[in-house]
Write a structure and sequence with these properties.
about 325 residues, 6-stranded parallel β-sheet, elongated
Length: about 325
């Protein structure tokens, strides 16, 4: 009888322990510095900036004890990988989506499942967007600074055309709006077109070719990305008008740096994907360890670099 009572008591203790464990999240509480699992979900990895960003996450993740899967692709791929992270019970999602609106349902489910969501480079369109933090350049401010720069170079006024980035992409919209806030009233817009696809050089060249046919008084080209500026340069050179046009790009990649160094691009507004990746990992680690983010940490703006022929040697040559 005593043995039976003892066995019943042991069983009750074990059952109570299991209930207590379930009440604490199904296992031992996470300790500061414990390893975590996550994913970096991004756009097409054939895009140089996305591939470089993925490499930086791979290089830096060990410093924060976070093991990451890298997942590039289209909108459908982005959503599939969010669902996979939820199904696998991973701890964190870093994401630079193709379409920031299309992933809202998935990211909402991820946060409901207790997954930390960090937006990489892509700015949240509203305060109620399902994210825990953002780390990226302020595309609006970068556009403003580009506008101020051309205004300083053309104090007597000038005409510009705009070769915009991917239509509907929040970065392209911010760069479009910022430039108009930064320019003086005597910097006049002739035309503006956005590329339909994901930031392709040939599409930028095609738009510029059309501008060159339509307008013989282009002084400035505001192009939303450095590889697009390559297409602009090719079109202007083929038309014999490269020397008369002031070309500005955005990104700060090696292509933009080289074009600035060669004197065919006046400015590259540079963004640091390395600093963005490091900040994402730092903030995720803080949350994983039970920390609370301040308002400034939740929206972590990474400063842009104004890369010109005069300042190019002040910056390290980009690795992408």
């Amino acid at each position: 009888m005593k043995k039976r009572i003892f066995a019943i008591l042991v069983t009750l203790v074990l059952m109570l322990s299991m209930v207590a464990a379930c009440g604490e999240g199904g296992g031992a509480a996470r300790q500061p510095g414990d390893s975590a699992r996550g994913v970096f979900i991004t756009q097409d990895l054939s895009n140089a900036s996305q591939n470089f960003s993925a490499d930086e996450f791979r290089r830096l993740m060990g410093d924060y004890n976070i093991e990451l899967t890298i997942a590039g692709g289209d909108v459908a791929d982005n959503n599939r990988n969010i669902d996979l992270a939820i199904a696998e019970g991973w701890d964190v999602i870093f994401i630079n989506p193709n379409d920031i609106e299309a992933v809202i349902p998935g990211l909402t489910r991820a946060r409901e499942a207790g997954i930390i969501v960090g937006l990489f480079s892509s700015q949240p369109p509203s305060d109620d967007y399902p994210f825990d933090f953002f780390a990226g350049s302020d595309d609006l401010l970068g556009g403003i600074q580009a506008g101020e720069f051309v205004s300083s170079q053309f104090p007597n006024g000038a005409n510009f055309v705009e070769v915009g980035g991917q239509a509907g992409h929040i970065a392209a919209t911010k760069r479009h709006d910022g430039f108009r806030q930064g320019i003086n009233a005597n910097i006049i817009e002739l035309d503006s077109q956005f590329v339909p696809g994901p930031w392709q050089t040939d599409e930028a060249r095609t738009i510029m070719e059309g501008f060159l046919v339509a307008y013989d008084n282009i002084d400035i080209v505001w192009c939303h990305w450095d590889n697009g500026a390559s297409g602009v340069i090719e079109a202007a050179q083929a038309a014999g008008r490269l020397d008369e046009i002031f070309i500005i790009g955005y990104d700060g990649n090696s292509t933009g740096y080289q074009q600035v160094k060669d004197g065919v691009q006046a400015l590259s507004v540079g963004q640091s994907f390395t600093n963005m990746a490091a900040k994402c990992l730092e903030l995720a680690r803080k949350m994983l360890d039970g920390g609370t983010l301040s308002a400034n940490e939740k929206m972590s703006w990474i400063p842009v670099d104004m890369v010109t022929l005069d300042s190019i040697n002040d910056f390290p040559w980009p690795a992408w």
